[in-house]
Design a protein that fits this description.
Layout (H helix, E strand, L loop, with lengths): L46 E6 L4 E6 L20 H4 L8 E4 L9 H9 L7 E4 L12 H6 L2 E6 L6 H8 L4 E4 L2 H13 L3 E4 L6 H4 L5 E5 L6 E5 L6 E4 L2 E7 L3 E12 L4 E2 L8 H6 L1 E12 L18 E4 L22 H5 L5 H18 L7 E4 L18 E4 L3 E4 L22 E7 L2 H9 L5 E4 L3 E3 L4 E2 L2 E2 L3 E2 L5 H4 L7 E5 L11 E2 L14 E3 L3 E5 L6 E6 L5 H7 L4 E9 L3
Parallel strand pairs: 3-4, 3-12, 4-5, 5-6, 12-14, 14-15, 16-17, 16-20, 20-25, 21-26, 25-27, 29-30
Antiparallel strand pairs: 1-2, 7-11, 8-9, 10-11, 12-13, 17-18, 18-19, 21-22, 23-24, 27-28, 28-29
Enzyme class: transferase
EC number: 2.8.3.5
Keywords: Mitochondrion, Transferase
């Protein structure tokens, strides 16, 4: 039997209001299509659910009171005058699903209306891939104002304000791998209470090791107290492989932005704006869509409907201009290459010049891992440079986990489109033959092993192929994004790590055993640094040095590597 089990008990006549509204995620919920005004007297008996795990009993109360949630009136038009009217009856304590990826596809108009509610709308739980930027955009106004007191996210990114609020104990954050988050939402909308996934095995996701809420810093230990621990996952073995159980997520209100919406609620999205929109709309009791264009019924061809109107309850005009999180451009008529601003400044200091040389050396070697016709996923940062070093006769299909297959280079100034961004929220283009899709589809490709190679960065890599690349406890809390999903099937998808050999303090990033929280255990096959290349024996464990950078010796590598390694009989040389 698994060490952690879940026991569900139904108790009649449970009193309402027992729990905080932030704990509303349960397996059995009212259909999001059912009007709250039609609750019969037989529904007055509520269900209290108990979850038993290794560490604690967690009581979850499902309240189905017709007065507690907005009424969905099927008799009236779905088109509302404005967002203020559409959110006027959203209740404090609601679980809000906020679609979008970074600032791409976020419902800025609706978020602005929610923010205007002020003290009349508080104690919100926000479920989103990201929580906006530090300045403005996305959920930032709601987290800054304190209206959102709890978040379920995969990635904080560059939102330093939210990161500091978490580290100081002013907000609760549940981190969830991006693919698991998408699948949990998809499952919630499909009536599936739980599922097993390889994502997160042998990590803090499995053990519940990431605190949800921190407390004051202990002056003796200099560490924050843990006021709310993470939730350990149940595990099960299928065909000799370990999987963790994830439960479905459902919400009270989903907010999303679409390009075109007809008066029946049918939605059409542009490119990467559909990342979480289509799945969140299906998993919420009430879905509000802000439309860039509201059109009559029949104006959208049936083949172009990405989200059927059955999942949409309210439609409002989008009045807030869409935002660009990271605008990246390239010179006209150039292909894959680094950001022009970085290149133009490369000669301003010898230190930066040396850093660029190291970076290009790593990217040039990483490009050799890519063969013609491969499907490839590139992590944020250095991995994205690899395609610029491919021979002209080698073409690969680049997959971006936010929903692109066939990603192209940065756009020229004239090609910039805020609806086409990569996993780093940077503006990009699409190559001929490209396709775009939602996040559930994207991570099905990834977990299913359909991607040939994934190139990722690292904080640490161990001799056994363990990877740590998302968190430094107490210092850096950004989230794992899609990294745990990307390494979840290393037998089908080769994992290549690109990294500087040492960190900014001169400490080796290649270690015998990782001291930082793992992204995945025994997953890396090849390590490419600015000094050398290691191949990893994932079956027996151990590193073999196979290539050296120019002017670098084996003794240099031994002096800068905190892991034992063998040396190949015939050492190759990395290109400069």
């Amino acid at each position: 039997m698994a060490a952690s089990r879940t026991l569900l008990l139904c108790v009649k006549d449970a009193k309402s209001g027992v729990l905080s509204n932030t704990n509303k995620f349960v397996a059995l919920r009212k259909s999001p299509l059912q009007s709250t005004s039609r609750i019969t007297s037989s529904r007055r008996h509520e269900a209290r659910w108990f979850s038993c795990s290794r560490t604690r009993w967690t009581e979850r109360l499902e309240q189905e009171d017709s007065k507690s949630q907005p009424v969905i009136d099927r008799q009236r038009s779905k088109v509302f005058h404005d967002a203020d009217e559409a959110v006027a009856d959203v209740k404090s304590g609601s679980v809000i699903f906020s679609a979008g990826f970074g600032l791409c596809g976020t419902a800025e108009t609706i978020i602005t209306a929610l923010h205007k509610r002020g003290d009349s709308l508080t104690d919100l739980t926000a479920v989103s891939n990201n929580a906006g930027a530090s300045g403005a955009g996305g959920l930032s106004p709601l987290t800054r104002s304190g209206q959102v007191t709890r978040c379920i996210l995969s990635y904080l990114g560059n939102n330093k304000t939210l990161e500091q609020k978490y580290l100081s104990g002013n907000i609760a954050i549940e981190l969830c791998p991006q693919g698991s988050l998408a699948e949990r939402i998809r499952a919630g909308g499909a009536g599936i209470p739980a599922f097993y996934t390889p994502t997160g095995v042998s990590t803090f996701i499995q053990t519940g090791g990431i605190p949800t809420r921190l407390g004051p810093i202990d002056p003796k230990t200099k560490k924050s107290a843990v006021l709310e621990s993470g939730t350990p996952r149940e595990t099960r073995i299928f065909s000799g492989k370990t999987y963790v159980m994830e439960t479905a997520l459902t919400g009270d209100v989903a907010i999303l932005r679409a390009w075109k919406v007809d008066e029946a609620g049918n939605c059409q999205f542009r490119y990467t704006t559909k990342a979480f929109g289509t799945i969140m709309a299906k998993a919420a009791r009430l879905t509000i869509v802000e439309a860039e264009n509201i059109v009559p019924v029949g104006s959208i061809d049936a083949n172009d409907v990405h989200l059927p109107g059955i999942y949409v309850d309210r439609v409002v005009p989008a009045t807030v201009e869409k935002k660009l999180e990271l605008k990246k451009t390239r010179p006209t008529n150039s292909g894959f290459e680094s950001d022009s601003s970085a290149t133009s400044n490369s000669t301003t200091s010898s230190t930066k010049s040396e850093a660029l040389v190291r970076r290009d050396r790593i990217a040039r070697r990483a490009a050799k891992e890519l063969k013609h016709g491969m499907y490839v996923n590139l992590g944020v940062g250095m991995p994205t440079l690899a395609p610029s070093f491919l021979p002209t006769d080698v073409k690969v299909w680049i997959q971006s986990e936010n929903g692109i297959l066939g990603m192209g280079p940065y756009p020229t100034e004239d090609e910039v489109d805020p609806d086409i961004v990569n996993a780093g929220k940077e503006t990009v283009t699409l190559v001929p033959g490209a396709s775009t899709f939602d996040s559930a589809e994207s991570f099905g490709m990834i977990r299913g092993g359909h991607v040939d190679v994934s190139i990722l960065g690292a904080l640490q890599v161990s001799a056994a192929g363990d990877l740590a690349n998302y968190m430094i406890p107490g210092k850096v809390f950004k989230g794992m994004g899609g990294a745990m999903d990307l390494v979840s099937n290393p037998n089908q998808t080769k994992i290549v790590v690109t990294t500087d050999h040492v960190d900014k303090y001169g400490k080796s990033k290649i270690v015998e055993k990782c001291s930082l929280p793992l992204t995945g255990a025994n997953v890396v096959s090849t390590i490419i640094t600015d000094l050398c290349v290691f191949e990893v024996d994932r079956v027996n464990g151990g590193l073999t040095l196979t290539e050296l950078a120019p002017s670098v010796t084996v003794e240099d590598i031994r002096g800068k590597t905190d892991a034992n390694f063998a040396v190949a009989e015939s050492l190759g040389q990395m290109d400069e």
